[in-house]
Amino acid sequence: MPTWQYVVMMLIFSLPVIGLFMMIWWSCGDLHYIERVRLARACLIQRILADLLVVALVLLLFSAANTMVLPLLLYH
Length: 76
Prior knowledge:
Radius of gyration: 20 Å
Number of strands: 0
Low-confidence stretches: none
Mean pLDDT: 85
Largest sheet: none
Strand content: under 5%
Number of helices: 3
Distance between the termini: 65 Å
């Protein structure tokens, strides 16, 4: 695959909904373009891990914020 196709794929992957759809489409797609399949699978795995990390951090911050705010509300 030429370099410009990698650049176009990465630009498409950076779009929120369309990028996720295209990652899934290309990772399950034609094995004729094995480089495209491998890049799509790698980006999909990276995106899933990053999304799980963000969800875990948000839950951690909200739970920490709730435990810190409750004692302050009780004592005032």
